[in-house]
Specification:
flat, binds 3'-phosphate-adenosine-5'-phosphate sulfate, Rossmann fold, 35% helix, 514 residues, Sulfate adenylyltransferase, seven-stranded mixed β-sheet, binds adenosine-5'-diphosphate, ATP-binding
């Protein structure tokens, strides 16, 4: 481990003034915040090659300390070139938040190759500024602050990565009573949850359950989602919980492992006892009186349809918060994203769908047509791969903002690349909006026969280069909600197919659809 003491490090003003600034990715900012707060102790900075090699080999840092996951920072080469790791006055990198405000200084003692155009930067970090702002900032307390307020004795930790319903609340109450422990609820707020719930909404839902819990301390922290590697992610969460003073952690998944000085409790499966309205062990309730907790999919279904979550399962205050954060699909923001070759029928269908929605007056609609976007939002962009990506990301970003505020955004660019379409879907999800990808799969031969703008003829004649389908690729979607080939469809049939899909899936009132 790079074993420095961050406190003993002073930064002269001129070093700060001349240092380059870089905004890391959101997951790296989350790691940075946990490094700065001490939640990742004994780590005090981003790891370098020796630690990373050792970690891969045996799950330990180079000095033998067990540590579950790589904590790394990747920086564009253009930024790294401005640093000189051999010179303490020229190796400081200012790390800024998404708005560009400095959060920390990195004393870059090592750089190493990662992928084309980027490199890893390793070294200790030191907080700059006042720790930042943002919703529920006051709840983002450091481990030292929290430990200072906890009563003596056992501390039961709960990681509330989903809202707490009555089965979880019953498990928590039981465990706290059995252990005679103080309760510490850790709410991960690094990124939207698996269910697309915004971090602020998750905090509100947890606070809404507060009067159903024993006396407790609630802390928000940017616990990163470590992707598919569940065991390592669980180990990291256990480490962080231990840093906050947790002695016993209530497992939220089977993969939670004891370690880092605390014990993990796997709670008993509870069910609702219809005889007296209590939640107790499954085995203690005769089957005919037993109601199992709703699954996440069932909860999602209630929210999608707009039916109130039942009181036997969810405290009304939590149900209200959840319904506010995840309104029924008919009121929730939605991005309808058409993709397909030029001439496949995207604009025609998108306009038809937009007209129908406007006629019904049910939803507000923004149409982001490919050609129109390129005249305004994306003016000046070419048809190079990089510019096409930029174009699709801009469209996706604007569409997601429309969705965030409950509107329907209809987009119809070619969007030939999977990755950019996936980014648009992710933007929508993070904004709490739905996303429906419509692949207009009309084959090239038919698009070419139509050749509305004469572009295919020009491309075949070699007069224009990089025409999608001719000498530029179109990556066929594998994740489309709907695939429509308009070769043998009338205009009306094509539009109705989309409207029916939206109606059948709860996004629209299905009644007026022919
Ligand atoms: N080289 C090349 N390749 C593809 N398309 C071309 C090209 N040059 C111009 N056009 C015209 O631009 C429209 C596509 O723009 P998009 O913004 O939808 O393209 S992309 O999603 O960024 O790839 C597209 O409009 P649509 O026919 O509505 O799809 C074409 O008319
Ligand atoms: N079922 C259909 N849906 C949409 N367009 C159709 C259909 N049948 C024929 N077309 C014709 O195909 C062409 C599609 O053009 P356009 O909608 O601009 O495609 P894109 O936006 O994908 O380039 C139009 O001339 C349209 O009249």
């Amino acid at each position: 481990m790079n074993g420095w003491v961050a406190d003993g490090w002073t930064l002269p003003d001129e070093v700060l003034r001349d240092a380059p600034t870089y905004t890391p990715r959101p997951s790296e900012i989350a790691d940075l915040e946990l490094l700065l707060s001490g939640a990742y102790r004994p780590l005090t900075g981003f790891l370098g090659p020796a630690d990373l090699t050792s970690l891969r080999r045996n799950g330990r840092l180079a000095d033998g300390t067990a540590w579950p996951v790589p904590v790394t920072l990747e920086v564009p080469q253009a930024v790294l070139r401005q640093l000189d790791v051999a010179d303490p006055g020229k190796r400081v990198l200012i790390l800024a938040d998404l708005e560009g405000a400095p959060i920390a200084a990195l004393d870059t003692t090592e750089v190493y190759p990662t992928r084309e155009g980027f490199g890893g930067a390793a070294g200790r970090v030191k907080r700059l500024g006042d720790g930042g702002h943002g919703a529920f900032r006051r709840m983002r307390r450091t481990p030292a602050e929290v430990r200072g307020t906890l009563p003596q004795g056992r501390v039961l930790g709960v990681i509330a990565d989903r809202p707490l319903h009555r089965p979880q609340l019953a498990q928590i109450a039981r465990a706290a009573r059995t252990l005679a422990a103080h309760l510490l609820v850790l709410v991960p707020v690094g990124a939207p949850g698996a269910d697309g719930l915004a971090p602020e909404a998750l905090v509100r839902c947890v606070l809404a359950a507060r009067d159903r819990m024993p006396p407790c301390t609630i802390v928000a922290l940017p616990l990163p989602d470590q992707g598919g590697d569940d065991i390592r992610a669980a180990m990291l969460r256990t480490r962080v919980a231990a840093a906050y003073g947790v002695t016993h952690l209530l497992a939220s998944s089977d993969s939670m492992l004891s370690g880092g000085g605390l014990r993990v409790l796997v709670p008993r499966e509870l069910a609702y006892d219809g005889r007296d309205g209590q939640w107790r062990s499954l085995d203690d309730i005769p089957p005919k009186h037993r109601r199992l907790p709703l699954t996440p999919a069932e909860i999602e279904d209630h929210l999608d349809r707009g039916t109130i979550l039942p009181e036997w399962h969810t405290p009304p205050a939590v149900a209200r918060e959840l319904a506010r954060a995840r309104p029924p699909r008919r009121q929730r923001g939605l991005v309808v994203f058409f993709t397909g070759l030029s001439g496949s029928g995207k604009s025609t269908m998108a306009t038809g769908v937009a007209d129908a929605l406007q006629e019904s007056g049910e939803r507000t609609v923004t149409l982001l047509d490919g050609d129109i976007v390129r005249r305004h939002l994306s003016a000046g962009l070419t048809f190079s791969a990089a510019d096409r990506d930029t174009n699709i990301k801009r469209i996706g970003w604007v569409a997601a903002e429309v969705g965030r505020h409950g509107g329907v955004a209809i987009c119809c660019p070619i969007a030939p690349y999977h990755e950019a379409r996936a980014a648009a879907r992710e933007f929508a999800r993070n904004a709490g909006a739905g996303f429906v990808l419509v692949h207009v799969s009309t084959p090239l031969a038919e698009c070419e026969r139509r050749d509305r703008k004469g572009l295919y003829a020009k491309a075949r004649a070699g007069l224009i280069k990089g025409m999608t389908g001719i000498d530029d690729p179109y990556e066929t979607p594998t994740d489309a909600e709907l695939t429509i080939d308009t070769t043998d469809l009338s205009y009306g049939e094509a539009v109705t197919t989309v409207l029916r899909y939206l109606g059948n899936n709860g996004w629209l009132d299905p009644r007026p659809i022919p």
